[in-house]
Amino acid sequence: MSYRHLLAFFSLLAPALAQDGGQLYTLTCSACHGADGKGAANGTFPPLALSPYLAGEPDRAIKIVLHGLNGPVNVLGKTYNLEMPPQGAAMQDENIAAVLTYVRSAWGNTAGPVTADQVKKIRAATSSRSEHWTAPELLKLHPIQEIKPLTNLLSFTYTGNWTAAPDFAKLKPAAAEEEPTGRIALPKIKAPKGKDVSPPASGNLGMVWEGTLTLPTTGDYEFLFGADDGGSILLDGKLITQITGAGPLKGREKQVIIPASAGPHKFRAEYYDLLGLKALQIAWRQKSQKEWNFLTEETKSAAKVWPPIILKPTERPIIYRNFIEKTSPRAIGVGFPGEVNLAYSVDNLAPELIWTGAFIDAGHHWTDRGIGNEPPAGLKVVKLTTAPALDKAAKFRGYKLDPAGNPSFSVQFGELSLLDGYTTSTSSLIRSLKVSGKSSGSTVLTLVDGVAVTATGPDTFDVGGLVTLTAKSTKILDGKLVLPLVPGTTTEIRYLWK
Ligand code: HEC
Question: What superfamily in CATH does domain 3-141 come from?
Answer without folding.
Answer: Cytochrome c-like domain (1.10.760.10)
